[in-house]
Every structure is written in C-alpha cells, then in structure tokens.
Amino acid sequence: MTTAVHVQTVEGFGTVTVRPVDPEADAPLLHGWVNEERARFWGMAGTTVEQVREIYAHLDSLTTHHGYLVARDGEPVALFQTYDPAADRVGECYEVRPGDIGVHLLVAPGLAPEAGFTGRLLTALVAFALTDRTRIVIEPDAANEKAIARMLRAGFEMGPEVVLPEVDLPEVFIPEKRARLAFLSR
C-alpha cells in the first residue's frame, strides 16, 4: 500500500485521502472503472486488467505525470491524474505558464447519487493540485458537456476549443482529441 500524499477533511463530506496509484494492487479496481460506458471519455474502454496495470506502471515511471487513487473515509471514490502541461500534448495547444498543472478526474462508477458530491470532492483535489502550483488546466473532451458544466460550477474559466494531437509512442498510443480548455487560478 502506498502512502497518502494529501489528507483533507471537507466539512459535511468526510476525509479525502489522495495516494499514488499502485499499478499492481489497483489495476483490477481501475479496470472496472475505466471500462464503464460513462468513462468513455477516459479513453481506456476495452482494456484488460493487464493493460491497465501496464498503463499505470508506465505513468508511475514518469516524473511529469502522476496517477492517484482518491478515497473518502477509506472508500475509493475517484482516479485523479496530474501532469506538467509543458511535457504533455496539451502544451502544444496553449501558452503554458510557470506554475501550471494539468489534471484529469474520473469519479468512480456505482456511487449512490449524492447532491454536491463532486463539488466537495473537488475542494480537496483543487487544494492538493495547487499545493505548489498556481493554475490548473483541464482539457475535457469537447463533447463531454457534463464535465464541462461541472468545471464551470467549480469556478473554472473556459478557454478555447482545441485539437490535442495524437501521441504514438512505443509505450502509449493516445488518439487525437477535440478538447475544451479550462483554467482555475489560485
């Protein structure tokens, strides 16, 4: 088990714990999450447990990209990824500033609907992401209206729609993506 890198109690919500993904131990759980229809924008539909393990082992080997398992009161509730936009394809689509950090969030499927859940979860994740950074950049799929609306409610400012270029490396293939940039400053 990996050690928490952020623990925060959110009033009326519970204690949010953020810890690095353990590719070996977490792959079965994450496989179930990323293969749900609702996670189609995550881009990992159709992967096997072994492929999920390999993807997160590769991510774990990088110094610029990080995967985290997020729990509320000890129960896994989200997958959170951070990255240096200057070392990512999004950096080709906007002027990266010193202090920028990119993030991706996948809320776990199967959670009972709870009003305000994602907003309160974001309270802790934004605090974590901005610990030593000044601005968050997100790039949800331009067709993911639900994610875009959620980020607007969280205070993100909409940026332009862009096309993220394809990434085709021996370790990873990521297809081209139409995305909507959004920013949140400290």
From TrEMBL:
<keyword id="KW-0808">Transferase</keyword>
<keyword id="KW-0012">Acyltransferase</keyword>
<comment type="pathway">
    <text>Siderophore biosynthesis; mycobactin biosynthesis.</text>
</comment>
<dbReference type="GO" id="GO:0016746">
    <property type="term" value="F:acyltransferase activity"/>
</dbReference>
<dbReference type="InterPro" id="IPR016181">
    <property type="entry name" value="Acyl_CoA_acyltransferase"/>
</dbReference>
<dbReference type="Pfam" id="PF13523">
    <property type="entry name" value="Acetyltransf_8"/>
</dbReference>
<feature type="domain" description="Acyltransferase MbtK/IucB-like conserved">
    <location>
        <begin position="19"/>
        <end position="67"/>
    </location>
</feature>
<comment type="function">
    <text>Acyltransferase required for the direct transfer of medium- to long-chain fatty acyl moieties from a carrier protein (MbtL) on to the epsilon-amino group of lysine residue in the mycobactin core.</text>
</comment>
<protein>
    <recommendedName>
        <fullName>Lysine N-acyltransferase MbtK</fullName>
    </recommendedName>
</protein>
<dbReference type="InterPro" id="IPR019432">
    <property type="entry name" value="Acyltransferase_MbtK/IucB-like"/>
</dbReference>
